[in-house]
Write a structure and sequence with these properties.
The complex is a heterodimer.
Chain A: E1 6-11, H1 23-30, E2 36-42, H2 48-60, E3 65-70, H3 73-86, E4 94-98, H4 100-104, H5 111-130, E5 138-141, E6 145-149, H6 153-165, E7 168-172, H7 195-208, E8 212-215, E9 218-226, E10 229-237, E11 243-250, E12 252-255, E13 259-261, E14 276-278, H8 279-288, E15 294-295, E16 298-299, E17 302-309, H9 328-342, E18 347-352, H10 362-370, E19 374-377, E20 385-388, E21 394-400, E22 406-412, E23 414-419, E24 421-423, H11 427-433, E25 460-462, H12 472-492, E26 494-497, E27 502-504, H13 514-518, E28 524-529, E29 532-537, E30 557-559, H14 564-575
Parallel strand pairs in A: 1-2, 1-3, 3-4, 6-7, 6-12, 7-8, 12-25, 14-23, 17-18, 17-23, 18-19
Antiparallel strand pairs in A: 5-26, 9-10, 10-11, 13-24, 15-16, 20-21, 21-22, 27-30, 28-29
Helix pairs in contact in A: 1-5, 2-3, 5-14, 6-7, 6-12, 8-9, 9-10
Chain B: H1 5-12, H2 27-31, H3 41-49, H4 52-57, H5 59-64, H6 70-74, H7 81-95
Classes of the chains: A alpha/beta, B mainly alpha.
The complex binds flavin-adenine dinucleotide and iron/sulfur cluster (SF4) (2 copies).
Chain lengths: 579, 99
């Protein structure tokens, strides 16, 4: 028997649970479990009214443990922890049992089986709750400093944003100069602004702020610690082989390391033939010519663009880039306007799959057609063929779906491959930060809509084109989002960490260091207790994964909130055979 | 079919010919009282691409248009269809019939 006073609440979830689980039978089966003093069902446990009822029960019946059997804790763990807190019950004496995702939704074909499983799950939850003790979150003071990696438009803008909120910034750029791709562009879409000047302006702003320290030729090589309190090592390459390591203490990290341009393979759409160039190469050519752009001394007149090179690839090829690179339709259409301006006698043919000049950029598309560009559509399974031909021209053959599938032949001076964005090779950074990488190999956010700049590594944010194709405006918008998220933890001054982490019993531990080898977060170090060497858990490093617990030969490690005793009693709860 | 980049310049000389806004919807073909399938969208496409042969193959059709402007009144892209047909006729009169 138990002298605990536990309340159990079983949710219908409006039918999501009760259609497949007989909740009343469940309630009857668990109401007499040891320690249970109240057992109720509710249509929606998360509703205000039911939460109020729970709070009232806790207060009036003096409950010291709470179990809610409902949906996944991912949804409502904090809802009910907060309800417990409001009623004066320690939130860590609450257990959420998932009888929706892990029971009713999974066993829609077996009502009896689902009901029985719900009973077992709840019994285990009650057993765990009996052995809970009050815990308090670990409070860590945050360091009011940030590391921004990547000095493109996103990183520069993020650095200025953080500095203006009063947070010191270490801005590191891998290459010898900041600016990223934008720093190499002249006229940009949509407003014709000069990219290089935009970057110069941002650099001026950076220089004006004393609380930004910029390192070029610099990379992040080590990171330890946790959200709010990271230790980072920055390696700065000097002349020759000279390398300096700088260590810094920061509260958060913003990653803005950008993208690379897709590099076509030899022979891909004729790449390798003189005059077949990529979009960045064409843009550079346009930007660097004052008068009529020329190649090999000859004015460029007839141009063919081939769209979607390196993007939206067929799924059956090796490591395909399935995504649309988003910036390239706009950038190619814009480039054609620049050429039309510089050489009004030019003829431009755009071979596209779909024109994705989304939003306002549609105007660029109309303008380019008015300026004389002609658009031809090819099917994804019938790509254009590019060959060398006489007179220094390049012959492009394409079946134009807009000319009723007729095969059309164009002799061009140059062929521009409208190349997409690919993730930069940044393996070392990924290793150091344990950054999550998506299937498309760009860095991954937690939630594309609701948490678009946060990563699963607490305190590490991503922005700009390192996260996926973005133009400059979108990169800056996400940079400022990262500033807000980052500042919201640093400005608060502290972060709260779940206390559900490993703890060592110094009496039992004799420092064999077995646990150190398995901890994936390097959170165990040698400590001392009454003159004896023992394992010590770094509270800001431990994630509570439990990896160290079973390897300890002395059973000296326990996981708070999930102790061995709790797990064993939960197993007993699962296996109990009376219904 | 070989694209002739200069053809469109020849036709466009008068600055009157403008079909770049055409989005190939086909409304014009559907409303044409003469039931002319080629006119105007296919024809315009050939002109824009500079496929001269196709244009010249269809001289007769170009002259069978009534210039009634039924298509123009219905064109969602506001292409000045009749003006374009006239410009083409002007070109053909000069270059083909040497008038
Ligand atoms: C040809 C072309 C034309 C374009 N035209 C336009 C246009 O007209 N308008 C528009 O809005 N957008 C345009 N874009 C898109 C624009 O370039 C991007 O939106 C923008 O560059 C994204 O900025 P970013 O800071 O995220 O990345 P980047 O510009 O790629 O900058 C990233 C920076 O991080 C650095 N870095 C990388 N790895 C590390 C590391 N490990 N540590 C430290 N630093 C690192 C890089 O050296 C670089 O300086 C164009 C792109 C191309 C290729
Ligand atoms: S619980 Fe996990 S993070 Fe904590 S010390 Fe053990 S292995 Fe490391
Ligand atoms: S109606 Fe206008 S837009 Fe549509 S096909 Fe005819 S000319 Fe083109």
């Amino acid at each position: 028997m138990s002298d605990r006073r536990i309340g159990v609440y079983i949710c219908h979830c409006g039918g999501n649970i009760s259609d497949y689980v007989d909740v009343e039978r469940v309630r009857e089966a668990v109401q007499n479990e040891p320690g249970v003093v109240v057992a109720r069902t509710a249509m929606f446990t998360c509703s205000d009214a039911t939460q109020q009822e729970i709070v009232q029960d806790i207060k009036e019946r003096n409950l010291d443990g709470l179990v809610v059997a409902s949906c996944s804790p991912k949804l409502h763990l904090f809802t009910f922890r907060n309800a417990a807190r409001r009623a004066g019950l320690n939130p860590y004496q609450y257990t959420q049992v998932n009888i929706r995702e892990q029971c009713s939704w999974t066993h829609t074909d077996d009502r009896d089986g689902a009901t029985e499983k719900a009973i077992r799950l709840i019994r285990a939850g009650i057993a765990r709750t009996i052995l809970t003790e009050p815990l308090e979150p670990i409070i860590i003071d945050t360091v009011p400093k940030v590391l921004v990696a990547g000095g493109g438009i996103a990183g520069l803008r993020a650095a200025i944003g953080m500095a203006d909120i009063g947070i010191s910034v270490f801005l590191i750029e891998k290459s010898p100069a900041v600016g990223g791709w934008i720093g190499r562009l002249e006229k940009m879409y949509p407003h014709g602004r000069n990219g290089r000047q935009l970057i110069d302006k941002l650099v001026d702003e950076v220089k004006k702020r004393e609380n930004i320290t910029l390192f070029t030729n610099a990379e992040l090589v080590e990171k330890s610690g946790n959200i709010g309190d990271f230790n980072v090592k920055i390696r700065v390459s000097g002349q020759g082989d000279k390398k300096d390591d700088i260590t810094a203490n920061v509260g958060s990290i913003i990653i803005a390391t950008g993208f690379d341009s897709y590099q076509p393979g030899a022979g891909e759409y004729g790449y390798g033939i003189d005059g077949v160039i990529t979009l960045p190469e064409f843009k550079e050519l346009l930007d660097s010519s004052d008068g009529i752009p020329a190649r090999n001394g000859k004015a460029i007149k007839d141009v063919v663009y081939i769209y979607c090179v390196g993007s939206r690839q067929q799924p059956d090829r090796e490591n395909p880039n399935l995504y649309c690179s988003r910036y390239c339709c706009n950038a190619a259409v814009h480039a054609s306007l620049l050429l039309a301006e510089k050489n009004p006698k030019s003829h431009q043919y755009h071979l596209f799959r779909d024109v994705r000049t989304y939003g306002r950029y549609e105007l660029l598309y109309s303008q380019s057609r008015e300026a004389g560009s002609t658009y031809l559509r090819f099917g994804e399974d019938d790509p254009p063929a590019v060959e060398r031909c006489s007179g220094g021209k390049i012959k492009v053959t394409v079946k134009d779906l807009l000319t009723f599938g007729e095969e059309v032949e164009i002799k061009a001076d140059i062929v521009v491959l409208v190349t997409g964005m690919v993730p930069r090779k940044n393996g070392e950074l990924v290793d150091v930060l344990k950054l999550p990488v998506g299937r498309d190999r760009f860095f991954n956010e937690i939630h594309p809509k609701l948490r678009p700049v946060e990563t699963v590594v607490d305190g590490v944010f991503i922005c700009g084109a390192c996260q996926g194709p973005k133009n400059s405006a979108e990169s800056v918008a996400s940079a400022l989002a990262a500033v807000t998220q980052s500042a919201s933890i640093l400005k608060k001054g502290y972060v709260e960490l779940d206390p559900l982490m490993a703890s060592v019993n110094p009496q039992l531990c004799d420092w064999c260091d077995e646990c150190v080898k398995v901890c994936p977060y390097s959170a165990i170090e040698k400590g001392e207790e009454q003159g004896k060497e023992v394992a010590r858990i770094n509270k800001t490093g431990c994630k509570g994964c439990g990896g160290c617990v079973p390897v300890c030969p002395r059973e000296a490690i326990d996981l708070k909130g999930y102790t061995d005793a709790q797990i064993k009693s939960m197993i007993d709860g699962f296996l109990k055979e009376t219904f | 079919m070989l694209v002739n980049p200069d053809f469109v310049d020849e036709v466009k000389r008068s600055e009157e010919f403008n079909a770049s806004a055409c989005m190939n919807c086909g409304v014009c073909t559907a409303v044409c009282p003469m039931g002319i399938e080629l006119l105007p969208r296919k024809l315009f496409r050939y002109v824009l691409l500079g496929i001269k042969d196709r244009v010249l193959e269809n001289v007769e059709t170009i002259y069978s248009c009534l210039l009634c402007r039924m298509c123009e009144a219905n064109c969602p892209a506001k292409v000045r269809i009749a003006e374009n047909v006239r410009t083409l006729r002007y070109y053909i009169n000069k270059k083909v019939f040497k008038l």
